[in-house]
């Protein structure tokens, strides 16, 4: 089912992979983010005290049908915890890559396709003015959506002090804060907009709580206590309205109907905590799950039953499985799919071909 096409040493510990969406299948790009803890004294002296964790953003080119892989760029920065591609605005042709890091910053890079490189555009610190940089929380996760006018991008970011931040990114490249608030008692590991209801934002934390926030009233819509450990990832399904999938340190993949949160629609034990959930852009019911302490799993969602079933597991990585994403295309010759995965302490990035049994 899985064929490893490339295995790359990222040098720093790798924890996030994001494929450029809606890309040309003959010439595709993706980014990889890394997170390196500074451990020995000699290394720490070379780095600012405000940057005890360092990172890199790599830009890669993947070519089909020869399946070539080329590292195009390496950007030194603070440790990366999450990243998302933002679509090109109506007045420009370049997508942007948004990253959040260990300094509590949102950084946005413009992708210059002709030059095949990322160029830093802006940086925004989540900490309020009265907070010192040393007290800044780590920025843990981010999500985005377009506003109702389809001009401005709204960004949601969660942090290591349990906070949530709502920002706006204008077509002119200006980031502004809408509001920030405390939500979880411990780390807010994840946040995600509802893809069907633009006023709803979900968050999950190390306090084992899953929350929905009504952005119109600035009130909590509901709180769910179904998880037996921290809530680590969320997926508002792009095809099925009201379907919300969650991953947790308790190793269970859960499917909820957001209209009735008292019980789950389906559950699947994947082993290891579940850090990321990614639906395939062409086949949204195929979900790629990064199961931290076991593997990367491909799960089939049956919305009619409803049910969740494990199709296969990619076992190439021997360290914490954090980053995973599907390429936004299928192989036109054999129907196979392509994915990129990365793991932490072995600093390993793999690009693999996935054949799904009919």
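Sequence proposed for the structure above (358 residues):
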């Amino acid at each position: 089912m899985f064929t490893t096409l490339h295995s790359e040493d990222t040098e720093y510990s790798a924890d996030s992979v994001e494929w450029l969406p809606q890309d040309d299948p003959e010439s595709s790009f993706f980014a990889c983010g890394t997170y390196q803890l500074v451990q020995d004294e000699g290394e720490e002296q070379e780095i600012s005290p405000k940057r005890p964790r360092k990172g890199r953003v790599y830009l890669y080119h993947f070519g089909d049908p020869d399946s070539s892989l080329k590292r195009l760029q390496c950007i030194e920065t603070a440790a990366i915890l999450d990243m998302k591609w933002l679509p090109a605005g109506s007045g420009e042709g370049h997508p942007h890559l948004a990253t959040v890091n260990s300094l509590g910053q949102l950084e946005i890079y413009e992708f210059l396709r002709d030059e095949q490189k990322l160029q830093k555009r802006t940086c925004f610190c989540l900490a309020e003015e009265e907070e010192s940089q040393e007290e800044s929380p780590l920025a843990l996760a981010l999500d985005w959506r377009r506003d109702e006018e389809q001009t401005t991008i709204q960004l949601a970011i969660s942090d290591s002090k349990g906070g949530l931040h709502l920002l706006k990114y204008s077509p002119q490249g200006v980031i502004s804060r809408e509001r920030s608030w405390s939500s979880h008692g411990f780390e807010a590991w994840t946040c995600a907009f509802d893809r069907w209801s633009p006023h709803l934002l979900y968050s999950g934390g190390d306090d084992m709580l899953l929350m929905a926030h009504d952005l119109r009233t600035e009130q909590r819509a509901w709180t769910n206590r179904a998880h037996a450990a921290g809530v680590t990832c969320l997926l508002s399904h792009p095809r099925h309205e009201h379907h919300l999938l969650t991953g947790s340190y308790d190793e269970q993949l859960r499917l909820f109907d957001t209209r009735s949160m008292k019980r789950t629609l389906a559950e699947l034990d994947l082993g290891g905590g579940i850090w990321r959930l990614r639906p395939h852009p062409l086949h949204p019911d195929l979900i790629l799950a990064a199961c931290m302490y076991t593997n990367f799993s491909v799960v089939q969602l049956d919305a009619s039953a409803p049910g969740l079933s494990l199709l296969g597991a990619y076992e190439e990585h021997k360290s914490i499985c954090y980053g995973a994403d599907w390429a936004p295309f299928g192989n036109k010759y054999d129907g196979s799919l392509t994915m990129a995965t990365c793991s932490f302490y072995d600093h390993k990035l793999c690009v693999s071909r996935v054949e799904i049994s009919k």
